[in-house]
Amino acid sequence: MIIDMLAAYKLWVKKTKLQHGIAHSDDQFIFYSSWGSPIAVSTLREALREMFEKKELDIPTITPHGLRHTHATLLLVQGVTAHNVAKRLGNTADMIYKVYGHAVKELENESVELFSQAVNL
Asked: CA 24 to CA 18: how far, in whole Å?
């Protein structure tokens, strides 16, 4: 459901920017106003708050910053490299290790376990 909503939103952003003569690239901001310019985080925060109050989203209440952390952590635990996560977030791999080291450590422990299992076959 959320993926479908995001896909529809992405299409809306492209159409809106095109209508206003603004070039679009997928590596730009995610959230835009109806006139094609990036919206402020406070505007996004308020929109999320309203959706949660109206029960339009069937997920636990979360802030935009919380979405960012969740996104990064989910990518890391799925095995996406810190370098690639850093590129998506506009950070450095070093910063990703500092902030999300717990997720990276879990993967390291899992790697050791998987290797041990493979050797013991």
From this structure: 8
Q: What values do phi and psi take at 120, rounded to 5? A: -85, 0
Residue 117 one-letter amino acid: Q
The amino acid occupying position 11 is: L
Helices (H) and strands (E) in the chain, counts: 5, 0
Which residue carries 């791999």 as its tokens? 93
CA 109, distance to chain mean position in Å, is 24
CA 56/CA 119 separation, integer angstroms: 49
* pLDDT mean for each 10 residues of the chain (121 residues): 80 88 78 82 84 78 86 88 90 89 74 78 62
> Model-level pTM?
0.59
- 29, burial (CB in 10 Å: exposed 0-12, middle 13-18, buried 19+): exposed
Q: Residue 38: phi, psi to the nearest 5? A: -60, 140
In what helix (H) or strand (E) does residue 77 lie, and over which residues does it extend?
Answer: helix 64-77
